User: Fold this.
Amino acid sequence: MKQKLLLIVTISLFTTFNSFAQSLSNIAGQVSDNNGKAIVAATVMLQSAKDSSLVKTAVTDSKGNYEIIQVKPGRYFVTTTVAGMQKSGSATFELKENENATAPVLIPQPAVKSLEGVTVTSAKPIVEVKADKTILNVEGTINAVGNDALELLRKAPGVMVDKDDNLSLAGKNGVQVYIDGKPSPLSGADLAAYLKSLQSSQIEAVEIITNPSAKYEAAGNAGIINIKLKKNKTFGTNGSVNTGYNI
Assistant:
C-alpha cells in the first residue's frame, strides 16, 4: 500500500514538473542597423502586448543576437534602446506553448539632431553593460513601481528564477546575493521571503556579476547579484524575542 502511494506521489510530482517545464518557450532575435550590421550591447526589452508591462530584458552579443529563455506563452513585442539612436519596437508576435519563436529584427534609426531649441536631457538606460558587470537600473525606470526585488530579478538579463524561487545566473545555480556590496546571510526560502519583502521603490540598481573580482569573497563560480539600495538602507538584522514565565 505504501509503495503504491509513493508511486502515485512520484508520478504526480513528475507530471507537475514536466507540465511546468513544457509550458515555457524561448524567444530569439537580432538588432542591426540600416546596413544589416550587428549592433552590440543593445538593450532589448520583452513586453506584454496586453498592457506593455516589462517581462524580461536582454543584451545583444557580438553578433547582435539575443535570446530570452523560459517565457510563458502569450502575445509579446520587443523594443530596443541604443545610445545615439531612436527607440525601436517590433510588431506583436505570439509565443506558443512548446514552440520557440523568432522575434522581428529590430533596426533602430539614428537620432534626429536639431540645432535650434535644443533641450539636453539625460537619463540612465534600463540596462548598462560594463566590462565587469551588467547593471539593471531601477530608479526612474518602468521597473520602479509595483514590483518586489524577486520580480525585478525575473526581468534582469541572464537571471532565472524557478518555480521554487531559486536563482540561477547564466544557467548556473548557487548564485550569491549581495546587498550593497555585502554578502547576504540568507539563503533558500529565507532569501526568497526577504526579496519579496523588498520593494522596487527601495532599490537603486541591480548589478549582475558573472565573473566576480577579488574584492568579493569567494562564492563559487555561479556569480554574484548585488542589490544596491537607496539611501534609506533597509537591510539589517531583524528579530524578535518572546519570553514567558510558567509555574
Notes: The chain has a mean pLDDT of 82. The longest strand covers residues 74-81.
